[in-house]
Design brief:
4 strands, mainly beta
Length: 78
């Protein structure tokens, strides 16, 4: 699933993903796509390298459906 209301202009340059924590109270910018085994109960990550707090941007869904990849720019040839 992809959440369309993320303000990617607020993301650090290194952030490639956005995801809500399992508690649903916090969101994170992520450098690497998370592996389910790395996300621990309570919204903690096994490593905080490449992880930074982010806004929820009004997200109301489940954390399992929140993972969103940074959009890629499509270059148009003229």
């Amino acid at each position: 699933m992809s959440y369309q209301k993320i303000e990617w202009t607020q993301a650090p340059a290194w952030a490639n993903y956005w995801q809500v924590s399992p508690t649903g109270t916090q969101a994170y910018w992520l450098r690497d796509k998370p592996v389910q085994d790395v996300i621990l109960d309570g919204g903690s990550f096994a490593s905080m390298e490449g992880v930074s707090e982010a806004d929820l941007f009004g997200y109301k869904g489940t954390w399992q459906d929140s993972l969103t990849a940074r959009p890629t720019l499509s270059l148009r040839s003229t």
